[in-house]
Amino acid sequence: MTAIGDISATTNPSFNYIDSVLASLKSKGATTSRKVSETKADESKARNEAKELLGMLGLKLNPPNIKRVSALKELCASDAVLKLAFGEAAKRQTPSLNYVKTVLESWQAQGLKTKADVAAYLTGRNDFQTGAYALFKKAGVKTALNEAHFNAYLKWTNEDVFAPDLLSAVAEASAGANNPFQYMTKILANLKEKGMLTKDAFGNTSAAKKGSDAAIRQRAYSAEDFQSVLDELDFGTEADE
Fold this sequence. Notes:
By secondary structure, the chain is mainly α. Helix content is 65%, strand content 2%.
């Protein structure tokens, strides 16, 4: 009777509609006045939470979307993590609930369970992206960065372990090229082959040095040696893409 009273107070329902509402409540185990009230409170809370999250993506608040938001909650350990995932999706040109799911599944696969875990991951990723943008801007890359740029930056910093000041010097040397990214790639491949991993080595003509990694040996080169590396390359022969 509580359910029927609430329906009739806000709508002009048919008996079929009342039957469908009662059937829905019964399927949720809401067969008493108390259970009906609790169910309604839960549904109201879910609706309000969905309204905030869907609003972040500019999506409509409707039953299908509310249901999808509820399903997404099952992929994360807390509402805070879910909100961070919606925040990531909101940064895209065409945000979607499918992308939220992709983000949550990715975090889940990486073992990121808490808000602190995700925040630390995002901070590291943002620092990485900031570094990449700064380096390629210094090199004069005017096109939007893509996966190739980020993969190259990851290789130079993590795999090749080029020193930051060396990468900065190479970026500056590449700024006048028609295709700075390609030119940087050529320079750094040449430097890697010659074992030149730090800018400090350019002005030092002492004997060979060992890097922090025992598998990496760094030779000492003068500034003239560094310039010879640049001279060996075909400067600026290809258009920037």
